[in-house]
Amino acid sequence: MGIRILIADxxxxxxxxxVFFLRTQENxxxxxxxxxxxxxxxxxxxxxxxxxxxxxxxxxxxGIEATRRIIETQPHQxxxxxxxxxxxxxxxxxxxxxxxGYQLKDIEPEELVKSIRQLMQGENQLHPKAAxxxxxxxxxxxxxxxxLDELTKREIEVLKEIASGKxxxxxxxxxxxxxxxxxxxxSSILAKLEVADRTQAALFAVRNGVVKN
Length: 213
Fold this sequence. Notes:
Elements: E1 3-8, H1 12-22, E2 28-34, H2 37-47, E3 51-54, H3 63-73, E4 78-83, H4 88-97, E5 101-104, H5 109-120, H6 128-137, H7 146-149, H8 153-163, H9 168-175, H10 179-193, H11 198-207
Parallel strand pairs: 1-2, 1-3, 3-4, 4-5
Helix pairs in contact: 2-3, 3-4, 8-10, 8-11, 9-10
């Protein structure tokens, strides 16, 4: 089945460029374009896209608030932030708002398509620059530690790799295990930590000191 995408960006040239390129890709359908966050919220409710490519700096309503409102009412929709900002003041709020992915606009077109497909397959990933900010600058008071006690040593290792933004294939290569085994560990981690996806697991890891600077 195809991936139905809504593009939200206030720059007409950027929107048009994304539309023209993505329409050349197999099994990808562009179902709408929004020029601000408010339009994105309204169109997400009406069109029910599978994925929303969301800019952050937009008039009327920014991408973070739009993401928050969409996830509140359409929790199963995937949102990938596509922006020029990689600092923690943008990365962290976007993830907390419910974004499943975070990519920068300097990404190669083919890599963007790859990221979209991976996100739809459950491999939520952060752009390396965003992951670096997440790991090096994010500081919060520790949350309840008990869920971490339930993870095995190997699951902790996998969680660290998830927090660094690695895909299942990359984790498998790093830990010398199969991708199937990685998927099993990831499913177990999400269940034990009671989080929805890999991005939320990464955020949990950083908050609770699993990943050290």
